[in-house]
Amino acid sequence: MSTATAANYKEIIDNAIKAIHARTFYAQYPESPKAYGEDAPKAGLDIFNNQLGKPFNGLLQQNPTAWVGEEVSPYTGKKLGITYPVFDTETLIVRAGRAFTAWKNLSVELRAEILVDALERIKNRFFEIAYATHHTTGQSFVMSFQASGPHASDRALEALAMGYEELNRFPQNITWEKPMGKASVVLQKQFKPVPKGISLAIGCSTFPTWNTVPGLFASLITGNSVIVKPHPKSIYAIAIVVAEIQNALQAKGVDANVVQLAVDGSDKLITKELAEHPLVKLIDYTGGSVFGSYIEALPGKTTFTEKAGVNSVILDSVTDLKPVVQNLSFAVSLYSGQMCTAPQNFFIPAGGIKQGDTVIPYEEVKKALVDAIGGIANHPQMGPGTLGAIQNPLTVKRVNSVKDLDATVLLEPKSIANSEFPEARTCSPIVLEVDAKDRGVYEEELFGPIVLIIKTKDTTQSIELAKHMAEKHGAITFSAYTTDETIANIITEELESVFAPVSLNLTGMIWVNQHAGFSDFHVTGGNPAGNASFTNPEYVNKRFVWVGHRRVS
Amino acid sequence: MSTATAANYKEIIDNAIKAIHARTFYAQYPESPKAYGEDAPKAGLDIFNNQLGKPFNGLLQQNPTAWVGEEVSPYTGKKLGITYPVFDTETLIVRAGRAFTAWKNLSVELRAEILVDALERIKNRFFEIAYATHHTTGQSFVMSFQASGPHASDRALEALAMGYEELNRFPQNITWEKPMGKASVVLQKQFKPVPKGISLAIGCSTFPTWNTVPGLFASLITGNSVIVKPHPKSIYAIAIVVAEIQNALQAKGVDANVVQLAVDGSDKLITKELAEHPLVKLIDYTGGSVFGSYIEALPGKTTFTEKAGVNSVILDSVTDLKPVVQNLSFAVSLYSGQMCTAPQNFFIPAGGIKQGDTVIPYEEVKKALVDAIGGIANHPQMGPGTLGAIQNPLTVKRVNSVKDLDATVLLEPKSIANSEFPEARTCSPIVLEVDAKDRGVYEEELFGPIVLIIKTKDTTQSIELAKHMAEKHGAITFSAYTTDETIANIITEELESVFAPVSLNLTGMIWVNQHAGFSDFHVTGGNPAGNASFTNPEYVNKRFVWVGHRRVS
C-alpha cells in the first residue's frame, strides 16, 4: 500500500498550489483507467463482488448500534446487500469533538501529510470506488471511474492545497517593534488559524464522492473534524474514501474519528439532527434547493451549499450548426441529464440563427437538435454508455409527468436497451417546446433528462430570460453560441452580473458539463444555485478564524 | 494638493502588501502630529472653525431634498451647526447603481490608483478630521488625530492592499490545453472577480472614520459602489473622507457617486430602509449588538459586523504589580472606556495573586487597581487628556444606574474638570465589586467607564468565566497576567477556542485597547462580538465572486 512520505507530500501540494495559480491543465490523478495498470480493473471488480451482500467492515468506528443498507443498483434493480454501521448522533458528536481537540493541535504539515497519504490510499481503490459508484448512481462505468476516482481526488487535492496555502499565509510568530522616539515597544506576536469545530458533509445520491470530498478535505486540512453523512442510496463509494482517510490517520497514530461515516436509513434520517446540533459549526451540502435553503438558514453555522440551478443555452449564430448540435446533444444526454451542470433551457430566436451568411430557420435548428439528441439515444453502442441509468425512480416519473405541461413534446422519452444490463432503469431525454411567454413551464429545475426548447423573439430576449433564470433560480453552467463578438460581450457581461460562468461556442471533445479541477470554479457561489465554489479562497478561509496573540517578551 | 501618481500608488500598495504578510510594525501615515508640519494644526483648526455653523459643501452629490445636522460637541455642549445634504433612499440607490456599472468595469489598477490618491487627499485634511472627531466623539485631541487620521488611513490602506492582492490572485486570461491522446482540447479561459453590487457602510458615533474606512475601501477596491451612512451625531469627520474620495474619483473622470454620503436625522433614520433594499448586497456595520444581529440576519446580504463584547482581564501572577495596575488603569480610562477594545471585567482570585515568591492578598490587588484608576482620574493634567469626554449622555446615565446593581461600589464616578472646556461632559470610571457567582451583574457589555472586579475561587474559575463570556457575549480583546507558562498556555488555548485574542503581561507603553494596522486582526469574527475582522482575507474576498468564462478559440 502506497503512503505519502514527508518528501513527496510537500511536492504534491506544491505542484497543486502552482496549478491552482496557473489554472492551466493539471491532474495529479490521470483520468484514463489504463494509467492504473492492466490488472487493476479486474482486481477492483473482484473486491466489489466480494463486498456485495456483506457488512462493510473497513471503518475504524467502534460499537455501532445497528447495521443498515438499502442501496439498489440502477443497472440490475437488485439490492447491493451491503450494510454499514449506525451510530447515535450523540456518539458521533462526542467522538468528533474528542478527535477535533487532538486534530486541531497537530501541525498543518502533519495534517497535510496524512491527507495526501489518504489520497494515495484512495487511489489504490479507484476501481472498487468506480464499481460502487456505477451500481449506486447509474453512471456509466467510465464516468463512474473518472468522476468518483481521479476527478474527485483532484478536487480533494485542490481544496487541500488551497487550505494549505491559506493556513500558511501569515507568519506563526513575529517580533513587533514600534519605534517610540528614543525607546520602542516590543511585542511577541503569534498568529493562529483556529479551526471552527465539527464539520458535517452531506452527500448526494448522484455524485457521492466528487461532490463530497472537496468540503471534506477543506475542513480537514483547516483542522476541523468531519462527520460524513452520505445519501442512504449512495454510501459505498464514500465509505471507501472515509475508510482510507481513517487508515491514514491511524497509520500516524491519530484518532481515526477525525472523520466518521454517519449512515442512516430512509426510515430514520439523521441529517437534520446532525445539522442542528450546536457543536456542528460547518456544513457542506449538495442536493435539492429546498433542503439546501434550510441548511443555509440555520443560525450560527458556516455553510457551503450546491443546490439546483436552471442551466441555459443561447443559440444566436454559428459557423457550422452540425458540431454545435452534436456537442449540445451529448451534453444533455451524458448521464441522462442527472448532472447539476447539464443544460436544460435552450433559447432559440423565432427568426432562426445565422450560419455564416445564411440564416437557418428556427424549425431547422430545432429539428437538428432534436435529431441529434434522438440520434444518441437510438445509437446501439453510444446510447447506453452515454445515458447510463437513472439513479432515482422519481426521475423517470418526472420525465413522464412533464408531458402534462403546457408544452409541445418534440421527442418522446423511452427506455434504452442495455445489452449488459437488461434490467437497467433507463430513460432517454424528453424534448419539449414552449414559447418564451410561458415562463411557468421552464422557470424551474426539472432534474433529469428533460430539455426545453424556448422560442424567443430574438437573442436580446434570450439573454434577458437566461439572465433572469440565473438570477432568480441559479445557474451552475451557461452556454452560448454566437459568432458576433459584440453579442458575445453582451452575453458575458449580462450573465457574469448574475454570477453565471459563460461557456462560448463549445464544440468537439469538451462539454459545458465538465468543470476541471485546478482550473474551473465549480458553482460561483453568487447565485441561488449555491453559496460556495470549488475551490475559491473563501471555500477554505471560512473554515477557520485568524486569532492573533500578543505578549510582552 | 498631493495626488497619487501611477508610479507611487503601486509602491504604496506593494509596501502595504509586504507589511500585511510580515505583520511587523508598519505605518504609511505617521501617528505623530508633528510629522505633518508646523503649520498643519493651526490650518486645520481654522478650517474647522470656519466650517462651524455652515452647510458642508464639499460633497459632489447634486440636488439634495434638505439639509440637516444635529452634531453637538461633548466638550462645549454646543451644536456644531453644520448641515449636510439629505437624499431619498431611492435617489441614493439609483445613483449607486449607475456608478457601480462604471466602477466595476474599471481596471483594478485604476481603482487602486484612485483610492490611493484619495488617501493622500485625506492626509491633507488630518487636522480638520481630528477637530471634527474631537468635537463629535469626545475623544481627546491627540486620540482624535491618531484614530481618525493616520490609524484610520493605515487601516483603509490595509483593506485596499488586501483586496488588491486577492483580486490579482488568479490570472485574467489563460490557455487551457488538455492532452487527449494524439489530439488535445484547447480552451481560452478568463477569470473575473465580479463585485457583488451596492455596499452600505453604517458608522458609529465614537469612531466615525476608524471603524468605517476599512469596509469602505475594501468594498471600493473590489469594485462595489458604497453608500456611507454615518451616525447622525458623528458625521463631519467621515463627510471629509467621502468628499476626498469623490474628489479623487472626479479627478480621473469617474462618477463621484461611486461613494455617497447618506445623512439622516434622529427623527427619520434611513438605515433600515437602506439595509433592506434589495439592491444593497453588502453591509458593513459597527455599533450595538441588537442592531448588529438584525443586520446579520437580513436575508441575501453579505454582512461584516463589529458589535459589542465583554472584554475580560485575568490576574493570576505578576513580576511586579505596580506597572500592571498602571497599564490596566490607563486601559480602562482611555477615552472613558468608550473603546470597543476596553477591558470591563477583571477576574481576581480570592486567594490573591503571586508576585515572585510572595502572595499579594486579594484586597491589596483590588486596592492597587482602584487607586490607580482613581489616580488617573484625579490627576489634573493626565485626567482630562486621558478620559476625554463622554459622547452620549446615555453613557453617563448608565454609569450612574449601575450603582443600583447588586454590587459594591469601590470607586464613585465623578465629573473631571477640564480647564480648556469647562462645559465638557465627563465621567470618571466607576469600579464595582461582585462575586463570581453573581453572573447576572457582569454578564453583559456595560458600555462606558464601568469596571467590574470579580472575585473568583481561583484562576481556573477566572479562565472558565472569561471563556464563557467571550463565547456567549463576544470579546474583542482579552488580557491576562501570569508568570506561569503552563497557565499562560491554558489561557491561550481556552480563549482562542472561543476566538478571543490573548494579550499577555502588557505593561509600559502598550495597552490591550490598541490594535495596530498591518499586524493585529481587529475582532476575530469568530465570536458574538462581530462576524468580520480587520483585515483577514475573508474581509475582502466575500465582497466579490470569482467567475470563470471559457471559449473555444
Give a structural overview.
2 copies of one chain form a homodimer. By secondary structure, chain A is an alpha/beta fold. Chain A folds into 2 domains: 6-17 and 32-171 and 196-307 and 532-545, Aldehyde Dehydrogenase, Chain A, domain 1; 312-504, Aldehyde Dehydrogenase, Chain A, domain 2. Helices cover 40% and strands 18% of the residues of chain A. The first copy, chain A, has helices at 6-22, 40-51, 89-105, 108-123, 126-137, 141-167, 213-221, 236-251, 271-276, 289-297, 321-333, 362-378, 382-387, 393-401, 439-442, 459-473, 485-496, 537-541; strands at residues 66-68, 84-86, 173-180, 183-195, 198-202, 225-229, 259-261, 280-286, 302-306, 312-315, 317-318, 345-349, 353-355, 358-360, 408-411, 430-435, 450-456, 478-481, 503-504, 544-551. In chain A, strands 15-16-17-12-10-18-19 form a 7-stranded mixed sheet, sandwiched between helices. Chain A has a 5-stranded parallel sheet with strand order 7-6-5-8-9, sandwiched between helices. The longest helix of chain A has 27 residues, at 141-167. The two termini of chain A are 48 Å apart. The model of chain A has no long low-confidence stretch (mean pLDDT 96). Chains A and B meet through β3, β4, α17, β19 and α18 of A and β3, β4, α17, β19 and α18 of B. β19 of chain A pairs parallel with β20 (544-551) of chain B, so a sheet runs across the interface.
